[in-house]
Amino acid sequence: MVAGLALGPVRIAPGRVFDLLLAGPGGRGGAFASIVWEVRMPRVLLGAVVGAGLAVSGAVLQALVRNALADPFLLGASSGASAGAVLVIVLGVGAGTAFGLPLAAFAGSLAALVAVYALARRGGTMTTGRLILAGVAVQYVLSALTSLVLVLSARPDQLRSVLFWTLGGLGGARWDELALPAVALLAGTALLVALARPLDLLLAGEEGARTLGLDTGRFRAAVFVLTSLVIGVLVAYSGAIGFVGLMVPHAARMVVGAGHRALLPVCALAGAVFLSLADLLARTAAAPEEIPVGVVTALAGGPFFLWMLRRSTRSEGVAG
What we know:
single chain, mainly alpha, 14 helices, globular
């Protein structure tokens, strides 16, 4: 985060950054103080919040569907949230209210997750291949819907906004927009950590969880709603950023194991660090041009996903 505050078109020495932070937003510092507190700080904080939330959501979704390849982006949750936000932007329904975009993004995220899960569970079993195909199919439908709405709107000025939702970006971060994502992250993570034991039971096996008294259907539905709410709020302010929820939980499990009481806080910290670094790379690699942060995470996550898919296919066999 200090690197994110120091590096950019105008470079500030790390020691100077610490001095400005200690002085506070009202302290003296001239142009450097304005750059740190008004431009970079909201962006760095939003990146940390979004990265933490996506990583936690990815770990929970992997437990809910008992599949190592589950991810908010791959399961269509991020695409659904983006489609809901784009509809609000283009149609103008509720766009002027504080909760219009988050509510639309939440509805789209939940609808996408439910659709993917229903398609993948058809027949009573779920394989990696079926889950991925269902996620890809839902993403294509949502992408087509977004493109159709944009074409019918006939407003070229909205193209940049729609591109933001589809590729993800943190450049529009403002202080007055940080509160809701932060509350969604803290409240959602706290509730999910409180549900760590049922998540552990579900990850270990559905039959065993039922034997121990867990109503798996009701529990899965409730956690789907909670996770969709967190994803929807985050995507409403950052756009669709993929693969954070896929890579970070696997890295965190290598450190603390699969128990969710320790896994979820570590995922939050690692996700915040990962997306902060990805955003730093996005705005410095091709300066003065800025690369959408979703492109950076996809370049890192794509090869990781292919490696995971190859390993999962070997374990399941060709039929999987």
